[in-house]
Amino acid sequence: MRTTTINKPFIDPSCDLSEGITYDARNHSLSWIDINRGYIYRTLLDSHDEPDGIKSYKIDENIGLMGLTNDVNKVIVGVSKTIDVFDFSKGAIVHNLARFPNGNVASNGWQLRSNDGCVDEKGNFWVGTMCDGSCPEVKDVGTLYRLNKDTLKLEIVMKNVGIPNGLEWHDGYMYWASSMEHIIYKFKMNNSTGLPDLASKQPFVNMADAFKNHSNKSYTLGEPDGFSMDTEGNIYSAVWGTNRVIKINSDGKVVEEFVFPAKRISCTTIGGSKMNTMYVTSGADHDSDASPDDQGSKIFRVQLDDQIKGIEKRRWQGPLN
């Protein structure tokens, strides 16, 4: 297996848990969030793909994800209890699109929050929910939803999920990371409904298998986190707790690893002027045994092979006001 080692960060935004990184080719920008501190960040890249200043915007609650829209200055965001529109030009949430049922409180009374998700091929917005920081532990009390672009109805796709994470579609299949199970699943899509056939659910990659021959056995506990995909169907998945992003081919085989100076690698996106640069987010390591050299919370950059092209982020096709 090929190994690429990254030794230094690309951007140091002073985050705690940077996540949800998104490239927009229309204005050559990178955006990401800090889940724990409730910030949205954006930088416009220059002609050399270097950051030309970074702007940060405070949200009054946790933010779990964002998606592009047809307005380059507006993104759709999932926050603690709602799905909203954020306007970069105003630096604020400007419109509410939907509210999670029951205030996003689970049946056991625990408060949930938005986590990962994305916009699908038809322009609907998918978002998973999970226990927030007030819960005594993380359990499978979350839900994967689809916000219908036409009706603005929040439709339940899957119940009883623990930590819903990376999500993408390719060639008639949906790929979805269930972090608590350490598995990326594969589902056959129903073309008429635009929803996955839940009966077709099958493990695509199990982290215990992916790392079974690795010298550090603790990596078998690595959690698949946010991921992106190239046009050939290869997945580039962050694996929380392992310092790594792994490249998984369309057969479910791990063919390459990217090693970072940060234990808690959280999300990837592919962008840049040639759509073959991978940008990677990370979280600060607060464990008592954390390395003093850990670069967690920073943004990293990896130049992929010339022939690789990332799938561009899709845009929400529903209303913005």
TrEMBL record:
| Residues reported to bind a divalent metal cation | 19, 165, 225
Chain sites annotated for binding substrate: 113, 115
Where does the record place the catalytic residues?
225 (proton donor/acceptor)
Please report the stretch or stretches of sequence annotated as the SMP-30/Gluconolactonase/LRE-like region domain: 17-283
Where do the TM regions start and end?
none
What keywords are assigned to this protein? Metal-binding, Zinc
- Homology family: Belongs to the SMP-30/CGR1 family.
Q: Which PANTHER family match?
A: REGUCALCIN
Protein's name in the database: SMP-30/Gluconolactonase/LRE-like region domain-containing protein
Species this protein is from: Eeniella nana
